Amino acid sequence: MANKTSLFLVLTAMMLQFTFSYQVTAQEQVSKVVDDVYRYGDPNLGYFSMFIITNDGVIVIDPMNTTHSQGLLKAIQKITKQPIRYLLHSHNHWDHAKGGQIFREQGAKIAAHKEAAQWMQKNPHGDLVMPDEIWSGKRKEIELGDKKIELHYLGINHGLGMTAFLLPKEKVAYIADIVTPKRMPFSIADFNIKELMRTLDELEQLDFTKAVFSHSYAKEAVGGKSDLADTKTFFIDLQQAIFAEFKKGTTFYQMPNTLKLPQYQQWAFYNEWLPINTWNMMFQVEMGSFPWRVESNSIEEKSKQ
C-alpha cells in the first residue's frame, strides 16, 4: 500500500506542476451567454471567467491571475461603463483565486466561502488577496441592481469552499472545475469521486438551461446539464472498465496503462489523463472512499494478483 500511495503522490505532484505552469496568452475571447451575461477567457488554455452586468454595476466570477484579470477588466470596460461591484471566488485553488487585486483597485467587494477563505489565509501567495466578505453555510444570495445571483456550496467534491453560481431569472449557471466538457476530468489531488457524483446529482436539480464552465475544450462556448451527465457517465464507465479488466486478469499496476475507453478518445488529454483517472478510481475504491458500483468483489483482492 505504501508503494501505491507514493506513486500516487508523485503523479499528483507532476500533474499539479503541469497545470500551474500554464501561462495566459493573448488569445482571450468574450462570448455572450444571454443578455448582460458574458464568458471571458482563452480557448487555447481553457480558463474562463463569467461576468454579469446589472444596472448598478458588474459582478465578476473567478479572477484566475493578474494577467487574466487585466484582460478581463479591459473586456468588461469595452462593453459597459458600470463599475465592478463584486468579485466572487468559486473555490480556494490558486489557479482560480489569484489576480483579485485588479478588481479591488476598481472598488469591488471580494467574496468567498469560509472554507476557501481560511485556506487562503493559511496559504498566502504574492498574487492572492484575501476576500472582504466571507460567507458560510450552504447558500447565499447577492442582489445587485436588476440581477440576483445564488451562491450554492455543495460540500466536499474538489477544492475547498467550492461554490456553484446560479442566475435564477436567466437560468444560467457557472460551474468551476468539477465539470469540464469534452476533457478528461482532473481527477487527482483533492478530487473526491464519491462526493463529486453526489454534487453532480444536486447540481442537476438546480433550474438552469445554460452553463459556463471554468474550463472548456468544447467547440460550444456554453454548455448545459448534458455536460454534467457526461461526467457522471464517464466515472461509471471507468469503474466498470476497471472491473472488466480485473476479470480478465489485469493486475492493479498494469491497469492504468492497459485500460482504454475508446468512446472518450476525442476528449482533451485522453492519453495523458486517462491513466491518472484510473489510478484515482482504483485508490478511492480500495480505500473505501468510493463504493464499488458493479459488484462487491474487492479491489484489494484483485490488486494482489
**Could you name the ranges where pLDDT drops below 50 across 5 or more consecutive residues?**
7-26, 294-305
CATH class of the largest domain: Alpha Beta
The CATH homologous superfamily of the largest domain: Ribonuclease Z/Hydroxyacylglutathione hydrolase-like
User: What's the helix count?
Assistant: 10
| Architecture per CATH nomenclature, i.e. the level-2 architecture of the largest domain | 4-Layer Sandwich
Organism: Shewanella woodyi (strain ATCC 51908 / MS32)
InterPro entries: Metallo-B-lactamas, NDM-1-like, RibonucZ/Hydroxyglut_hydro
Protein name: Beta-lactamase domain protein
Keywords: Signal
Jot down its keywords.
10 helices, Metallo-B-lactamas, 7-stranded mixed β-sheet, disordered C terminus, 2 domains, alpha/beta, 305 residues, 12 strands, Metallo-beta-lactamase, Chain A, 5-stranded mixed β-sheet
Structure report:
By secondary structure, this protein is of the alpha/beta class. The protein has two domains: 2-14 and 233-303, no CATH class; 24-224, Ribonuclease Z/Hydroxyacylglutathione hydrolase-like (Metallo-beta-lactamase, Chain A, 4-Layer Sandwich). The protein contains ten helices and twelve strands. It has helices at 2-20, 66-79, 94-97, 101-104, 114-122, 193-204, 225-248, 255-258, 270-286, 299-303; strands at 29-34, 37-42, 47-54, 57-61, 84-88, 109-113, 133-135, 139-144, 147-153, 163-167, 172-175, 210-213. Residues 7-26 and 294-305 have low confidence and may be disordered.
